[in-house]
Amino acid sequence: MKEHKKTVKGVAFYNNPKIRAIIYQILALAAIFLFTYYVLHNMFINIEKRGINTGFDFLGNEAGFGIISTLIPYTESDTYGRVFIIGILNTLLVSGIGIFFSTIIGLLVGIGRLSKNFMISKLCLVYVETFRNIPILLQILFWYNVVLAALPGPRQSMSYMDAFFLNNRGLYIPRPILESGFMSVIIAFLIAIAAVVYLAKWAKKKHDETGEEFPVFWTSLVILIASPVLVYFVSGSPATLEYAQLKGFNFVGGWTFTPELLALSFALSIYPATYIAEAVRAGIEAVPKGQKEAANSLGLKNHIILRKVVLPQALRVIIPPVINQYLNLMKNSSLATAIGYPELVTLFAGTALNQVGQAIEIILMTMAVYLTISILISIVMNFINAKIQIKER
Amino acid sequence: MKLLKTLSLSIAALAIASTVSSADTLDTTIKNGKLSCGLNTGLPGFAAPDSDGVWKGIDVDVCRAVAAAVLGDATKVKYAHLNAKERFTALQSGEIDVLARNTTWTATRDTSLGLNFTGVNYYDGQGFLVSKKLGVKSAKELDGATFCIQAGTTTELNLTDYFKSHNMKYTPITYDTSAQTIQGFEEGRCDALTSDSSQLYALRTQLKNPSSAIVLPEIISKEPLGPVVRQGDDKWFNIVKWTEIAMLNAEDLGVNSKNVDEMLKSTNPNIQRLLGVTGDIGKNLGLDPKWAYNIIKQVGNYGESFERNVGQGSPLKIERGLNALWKNGGLQYGAPIR
């Protein structure tokens, strides 16, 4: 029997464990690359053989179909490239609306569930359990059909002060039309923001030095609203409102929120909010009781304890699961295809795909968009997460 | 590194060697014992389940006829129910072998998607369905109206063309399926619904109160609807193409599902060739000599299929119109079987 040798002298290089590990990894990587290459190569040969067009030339062709709501100007003679951009913008719009409202609702309900008030906590519980357990597609369809069924036709629309109209074609609100002098209002607003930032710094310094509290929030609010409004009137009201008017079949002018957008925003706010609420609750409960008791013994008021002691610590627990909810929300916006809201999947991976027929290019582009947005959301949220982590010095 | 080189070379060789051989659809269908056929998700007259849950319609008959010709049994079909957006990909990828889903034959689809249209089983045209309440009598009064449309159809493009050429504006709401489209119309989301006129009649029957809506007189486009197959399999293309021609010729020659057995004894040489009594059309197609007999016996001729599904024998009650035989003033003309 030979003795087991620990030294590697005289052993062939492929028996050296270190080199071996590297070789295996290179082989694994090469196999993955070759497999991908093989699949793609095969696919393109097959496509060509079957006489299917390939390439991205179609992006420059005229789309030729109408789109109900766009954030940038669009006519039927615009290109598929523009349709792609419109799809992305509409996806970002509903996702943005969803993220904004689901965060607010989630935060309130999450805090509400821990409330000592029996009614509030139970109502929040019912909300979470109800909307968390119904598939979001059903919720989208439900809101859409509820909205449509409840609202009257354009000619019988509900109106408020002849400026706001609600009917089954959407919610119509006046649209401000800005004139040249409006620039001064924007500048006033920017200056107000700068002033508020300075004020916050000054108040913090004063608080650090003297312990005196200054009502930063309310003062800031007044500055932010009052100064642009003041400048607006001083410069002679350089904006007019365009009202929606009933013309022929429908209302024309103003800003329109279509039922599709309303239903989708509703579903994308209410459903993810349940998960965010649970994350918030978990985060708050994760803050040691002693922290609250200590703050209490200092004589701090409840809302100040929540804002300055509990939430900053809870956020460290809350943010990671919330990132996931934002990502899910963004991806769930593609369910809009069920109600015809023109976001990326409906518009580009749906209508455009079927008009052009180039499935591979279009699906790849669509996937790339979702991947990019997801990564961006992750990066931003992880940055925020890193910011609020405990800094150990 | 030698190992790696050998590995990469062999995989590259594999990649080149195994470029998919053009699959023989006829052989695979016979081997599977079932025809996989793509249909609409539900459109009365073309493809919709009856009260027993059996799918019926003029498009279903295309599937059944091809199955009868190829497998000798019209029931040996596996149906795939596709929406407008899925249909071409399903055919391109080989999920289905025939697409019989009221699909308009256009130049782009025929030339750039790797597909072949085998013929026209229904000559259609795009029209408008509007609520009676609006008091609209003509499509020219629809300026500024909102339309319910099915996404990704030629309908969408025709509507744009029509409104552009008449200098009018419209707002589109595009839904995924025709069921959603009619629901949107019924709930008042749109003023009008636009689609192929045959579909309008079919969709109107699905309204709670069908008499509350009317179909406007204008037809704004040509919509030749027909079965589609993949490019590059000429044998299969021929089979699907001649299945429909056989049904047309059967009507032309007065052969139907009831008299087809007697007709086997007919002395008319055209009928003899059609039913495989003489000649070798079946053999040339790679099928049983009785291929056309099986179609007619089990599915019927074109006229029977039309009347049963969309014509007077159906709730739709659509006139033959353009779909009458050539000798009756229509466009349906079966190339001679000889």
Automatic annotation (TrEMBL), chain A:
Keywords: Amino-acid transport, Cell membrane, Membrane, Transmembrane, Transmembrane helix, Transport. It comes from the Bacteria. InterPro entries: AA_ABC_transptr_permease_3TM, ArtM/GltK/GlnP/TcyL/YhdX-like, MetI-like, MetI-like_sf. It holds the Pfam family BPD_transp_1. One of its GO terms (biological process) is amino acid transport. The chain crosses the membrane at residues 21-40, 83-109, 130-151, 181-202, 214-234, 254-271, 335-356, 362-384. Belongs to the binding-protein-dependent transport system permease family. HisMQ subfamily. It is a multi-pass membrane protein. This is Binding-protein-dependent transport systems inner membrane component. It comes from Arcobacter nitrofigilis (strain ATCC 33309 / DSM 7299 / CCUG 15893 / LMG 7604 / NCTC 12251 / CI). GO terms for cellular component: ATP-binding cassette (ABC) transporter complex. Residues 88-381 form the ABC transmembrane type-1 domain. One of its GO terms (molecular function) is transmembrane transporter activity. Its main location: membrane. It is found in: Cell inner membrane; Cell membrane.
From TrEMBL, chain B:
This is Cationic amino acid ABC transporter, periplasmic binding protein. InterPro entries: Bact_solute-bind_prot3, SBP_3_CS, Solute-binding_3/MltF_N. The keyword Signal applies. It comes from the Bacteria. Residues 1-23 form the signal peptide. Keywords: Signal, Transport. The keyword Lyase does not apply. Residues 34-263 form the Solute-binding protein family 3/N-terminal domain. It holds the Pfam family SBP_bac_3. Belongs to the bacterial solute-binding protein 3 family. One of its GO terms (biological process) is amino acid transport.
